[in-house]
Amino acid sequence: MVRALYRLALWLAFPLIWLYLLKRSRKQPAYRQHWAERLGFYGAQPAVARRYWIHAVSVGEMRAAAPVIAGLRERDPDAEILLTCMTPTGRATADEVLGGKGYVVYLPYDYPGAVSRFLRHWRPAFGLIMETELWPNLLHGCADAGIPLYLGNARLSARSAAGYQRIAPLIRPALARLAGVLAQDEADAQRLAALGARAVQVVGSVKFDMPVNPALQLQGRRWRALFGDRPVLLLASSREGEEALVLDALQGCGWPAGLLLIVVPRHPQRFDAVAALLAERGLPAVRRSQWDGHSAIPAATAVLLGDSMGEMGAWYAAAGAQAEPVLMGGSLLPFGSQNLIEACAQGAPVVLGPSTFNFAAVAAAAVTAGAACQVQGIPEALDRAMRLLADAPARRQMGAAGLAFAAAHRGATARLLAALPVA
């Protein structure tokens, strides 16, 4: 009965899905492409002996899948990799991760017919959903088709668990049909088990195994040299509203002498809006898309806007070059934080705001290790960042702690792969 009501709700929402895609396409035209795939229709593909399917909803999860894909290729070089996603930015990242070796398509929406068409067309040996993307008809469809489906690098915050508990009659039977759940930490494992998941193991976070891209690291260090002796503060993967509040705090007390603020918004569709905000504030700004990356930034520049894709590693490397602080986006307002591991792995001290529910265990461990500090608001975050910029030994100590912290938690990918039925 519950599944029938869920299917009815999906069909009632059917027209709204396409209106949503059209709305998103105003800022990202790529949302108008590949609509047939969202209903489970795909072009003909050559038959292969084995196909391993990994689903990652968007950019962060897709990048986290990279070490898993590398491990699968090492264990079974003849198998084909199929990556599915839900967003155009996730698709672009998937193309980058696969390097032209495999297929990238959209996972269809959770309509039973669309799910069946997807599974019949691709016939994967198994599926791996990265982190937490729970579609009941997909979970049931895989089990009915005899395709083992795993939840990998799984995490479930207390907030999300409470939300799923409200629809437990729908989610519990679906979770029970997973072949396995490979959780990031014990708290995640307990929450997923309480929702009905079986065969739950704790393997750690594969994001610790994401290799530092040497080309991006070199690029970031070259950028830092171009900034000269100015103090640099990176606001990384910022979410809506955070940029304005940081600017309020910096301008309210008088812009710190010589400070270059680097702002890298999380979502590309917000690049122009943040640029407009900087113009409204009268702040001399340079956009990465208008900077060649080889010339010195003008001395009058107060803000460098990172409006490019695929260069987050370079921004972290620029901060890590002199162990300068990173304000972690998503943690300053109640978004749950973005991933802080890559900043630590580049030797950049991390300043976290109060909201870290998406990375609760990682954030707590980083603070305990001395790689990060956590504060209760933006004024305190900026005060901590300014004190770090004025204290080179303290920030270098935090940067070194970050490198050690990232290294100490590697190995989750091997544990995850050991749980999968790889040939």
List the keywords.
alpha/beta; globular; seven-stranded parallel sheet; 423 residues; 18 helices; 14 strands; Rossmann fold
Quick structural summary:
By secondary structure, this protein is α/β, with parallel strands linked by helices. It has helices spanning 2-12, 14-25, 59-75, 88-98, 112-122, 136-144, 158-165, 168-175, 186-194, 214-226, 242-252, 271-280, 312-321, 341-345, 360-369, 378-389, 392-408, 412-418; strands at residues 51-55, 80-85, 103-106, 126-130, 149-154, 180-183, 200-202, 232-238, 260-265, 285-287, 303-305, 326-328, 350-352, 372-374.
Write up what this structure looks like.
With 423 residues, the chain is an alpha/beta fold. The protein has two domains: 2-202, Rossmann fold (3-Layer(aba) Sandwich); 214-408, Glycogen Phosphorylase B (Rossmann fold), CATH 3.40.50.2000. The chain contains 18 helices and 14 strands. The strands form two sheets. A seven-stranded parallel sheet has the order 3-2-1-4-5-6-7, with helices on both faces. A seven-stranded parallel sheet has the order 10-11-9-8-12-13-14, with helices on both faces. Helix 14 (341-345) links the parallel strand 12 and strand 13 (350-352). The radius of gyration is 22 Å and the shape is globular. The two termini are 39 Å apart. 44% of the residues are buried.
